[in-house]
Q: What sequence folds into this?
C-alpha cells in the first residue's frame, strides 16, 4: 500500500468513526471509490490535487489535497441536515486529534475546507459534505545515476 493510500484509508477510518446516535447509522467508507452509492451516508476519499516542491538535493515536500465527499440521503432534508450538522464538527475534531493521520503523513496543513451541496452519485441525488484536507509528506529524493 502506498503512503498516499495509507493516508486516504486513515481519512476513511476517521469518517467511519462518526456515528449518528439518533438514527443508529454509521458512515460507510469503502477502501476505494465505488460505482454505487449503496447505503447512505457514504464517505469517499481520494486524491483531489497536489503540489511538489524540491526543498534541496535530498528532499522534496509533497502536499496532497485529499478530497473526502460524504454523501447523505436527501429523502427528508431536515433529517439530512441534522446528520450533517452532527458529522462536520465530529469529523473535524477527529482530524484535529490525529494531525499525522496515524503517522501516515507529516501533518495536516490547515485550513481544512468544506462545502455542502446537492450532488449526484451515479444517478442518485445526495446532499454532499465535501472536504479538502491538505496533507504534507516530506520525501527523501533518491540519488539518480545516469
A:
Amino acid at each position: 500500500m502506498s503512503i498516499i493510500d495509507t493516508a486516504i484509508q486513515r481519512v476513511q477510518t476517521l469518517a467511519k468513526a462518526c456515528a449518528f446516535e439518533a438514527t443508529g447509522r454509521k458512515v460507510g467508507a469503502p477502501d476505494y471509490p465505488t460505482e454505487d452509492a449503496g447505503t447512505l451516508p457514504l464517505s469517499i476519499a481520494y486524491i483531489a490535487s497536489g503540489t511538489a516542491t524540491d526543498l534541496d538535493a535530498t528532499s522534496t515536500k509533497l502536499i496532497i489535497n485529499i478530497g473526502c465527499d460524504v454523501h447523505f440521503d436527501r429523502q427528508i432534508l431536515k433529517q439530512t441536515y441534522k446528520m450533517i450538522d452532527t458529522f462536520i464538527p465530529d469529523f473535524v475534531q477527529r482530524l484535529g486529534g490525529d494531525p499525522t493521520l496515524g503517522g501516515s503523513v507529516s501533518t495536516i496543513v490547515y485550513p481544512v475546507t468544506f462545502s455542502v451541496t446537492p450532488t449526484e452519485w451515479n444517478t442518485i441525488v445526495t446532499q454532499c459534505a465535501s472536504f479538502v484536507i491538505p496533507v504534507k509528506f516530506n520525501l527523501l529524493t533518491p540519488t539518480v545515476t545516469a
In short: The chain has a mean pLDDT of 86.
